[in-house]
Amino acid sequence: MDSKILTDMFVMGVPVAEKMLRPVVVYFFLVVGLRLAGKRELAQLNPFDLVVLLTLSNTVQNAIIGDDNTVTGGVLGASTLLAVNFLVVRFLYRHEKLDRMVEGDSTVLIENGKILEGVLAKELLTVPELEAAAHKQGLGSLAEVDKAILDPSGVICFIAKKPAPEETRHRELMARIEELGREIAQLRMGQAPPAA
Prior knowledge:
The chain is of the alpha+beta class. 64% of the residues lie in helices and 9% in strands. The chain contains 9 helices and 4 strands, in the order ααααααββααββα. Strands 2-1-3-4 form a 4-stranded antiparallel β-sheet.
């Protein structure tokens, strides 16, 4: 192989310390930026948010790698990001209060079947976006939801209402019909049905 190719691939044009510092700075900037942007950015609920997240990674790419396009520089930058993330996650695991401050708290969006419009507005969520998230979790409509919680990770958890009175009555009737069917079958076989 040509030595110029090897040099271009593996000899970094940026000092190692700078190569390791750049990803650390960008990492902490993104953690703070995404925290300030809110949970919605993490949830990727609509195409606009997805576009922001995808272009964000491309936007900070040059800040991480600088003028260096070598394999060595890329591996060093990626390794630094992974190491910083590993250390931060382990640190936050041991410091619950700090973790809650960084991650944020869960937010109740629907309580007792009532949509909390003010909370939706604060989180920049619309009712159609909430309905779409409910559909993804197998719910037919928001009328079936007793409680919805927006987790710090951006995931919306839905808790369905307990079965409606009609559904409960239907189940009771079906159970009684099955019981009557068994009694009829026993009568046909000449056996007396068990006393109720």
